[in-house]
Amino acid sequence: MSNSTFHLPLNLAPDEASPGWLSKGDNAWQLTAATLVGMQSVPGLVILYGGAVKKKWAVNSAFMALYAFACVLVCWVLWGYRMSFGTHLAPFWGVPNVSLEQRYLLHQAFIGMFPNATMVYFQFVFAAITLILIAGAVLGRMNFYAWMMFVPLWLTFSYTVGAYSIWSPNGFLTKKGIIDYSGGYVIHLSSGVAGFTAAYWVGPRLTRDRERFPPNNIILMLMGAGMLWLGWTGFNGGDPYSVGIDASLAVLNTHVCTATSLLTWLMLDLIFFRKSSVIGAVQGMTTGLVCITPAAGVVQGWAAIIMGICSGSIPWFTMMVVHKRSELLQKVDDTMAILHTHAIAGSLGGILTGLFAVPKLNRIFYDIPGQYVGLFYGFEMGRVSTGFRQVGIQLLGILFVVTFNIISTSLICLFIKLFVPLRMSEEDMEIGDEAVHGEEAYAIFDDGDRFEGSKYDVELAVTKIRSERK
């Protein structure tokens, strides 16, 4: 995200609906982009998760996403936004403060020609989707009460640190010159590492669930995936904070890379497994979206295609080959393969950004001439040391995000474990949604009727059928 000079708040008369600094076009696009990103989560990931898991986990998986979306918003306006983008407290953290006062919300944001209210909303949807992505690693067994505690704690003690360090103008990695156009590090690398770490502490699903976990509704899953893909128009297109040429380039690069990645993954499935997997295509789509995110508006179209080829092949290799041969990786039950689709793809995108970042495009985005030079352009311009420095900063960012998220996520999980179990009971995992929420996703004929007087509806239904047969 852009880190150009702060705009100091201006005095706003109570009756002045359109102050001189406000661009109605930019404000309208920013609100639209934010809503597109929000729809990636609700309903996008809600129905993707709900369709991609076993039938007995459809409600729980969808509800984990819905809860996180709501919880993050409340925490965000009460303290999270200012910790991520507010007054300097430390090189990696801002001072906690509320973001609800009219005097604050109606003033100009720290960047862009729109008010703080718009910026708070825009940044919220990014924070929310990060938590929802983490949920993908622990579907099918995490105690819902533990998840309710995990969301505000991880937002506060992990997400805000990454966001401030990499996106805030005062962040230490921002000052070093890291390029993370729209969240390859802050969102995808962090969620992938945190999700995998949380999956380790929560423990695996039931053995038979882990061995066979077919989607209960692939068409519904595809609908969610489609919303995720098209919603990325706002994800990457909103980060220049204006409706300029950079936004247009970011949107086109995003979709070109994603389509290339999907086709690459599909070809590899056909070559090695002789079948075109729908689930594989969705994974290839996801890795393409993630890989282009740190680079979307600062690389050329040909680079987006190369990044798509890489994102469709390297995460495929780590998932299909490395993971299956690694005893260490096999021990961790990452339900939706968040490690590969987000952490690996996000790291890959960050490194490739260090290679392909175009100085002129970086100048448009960051408004700082000469600082951001991809390695390949460093060779072309005779600034090789600057190019190597950019790659080094990108690697430093990966090291920081990985290390910090392993530590912070582990501490959060261990803290929660003091109060509630991280993992559901074996009995609850046998039954699924009916045990956890007293609800089921699909009711056929009278299967969804409620019966009173039993611990679980399923048990009473079985008793009723047996009595009728007698």
Can I get a quick summary?
The chain has 20 helices and 2 strands. 68% of the residues lie in helices and 1% in strands. It folds into 2 domains: 24-426, Ammonium transporter AmtB like domains (Ammonium transporter fold, Orthogonal Bundle), CATH 1.10.3430; 440-470, no CATH class.
Commentary on this structure:
Helix content is 68%, strand content 1%. The model is unreliable at 2-10 and 450-456 (pLDDT under 50). The protein starts with 23 loop residues before the first helix and ends with a helix. With 470 residues, the protein is mainly α. Helix 10 (245-273) packs parallel to helix 12 (301-325). The chain folds into two domains: 24-426, Ammonium transporter AmtB like domains (Ammonium transporter fold, Orthogonal Bundle), CATH 1.10.3430; 440-470, no CATH class. Strand 1 and strand 2 (93-94) form a beta hairpin. The chain is built from 20 helices and two strands. A two-stranded antiparallel sheet has the order 1-2. The chain has helices at 24-52, 58-85, 102-105, 116-135, 144-166, 172-176, 184-202, 207-211, 218-237, 245-273, 278-292, 301-325, 327-331, 338-356, 359-366, 375-381, 384-417, 426-431, 433-436, 457-469; strands spanning 88-90, 93-94.
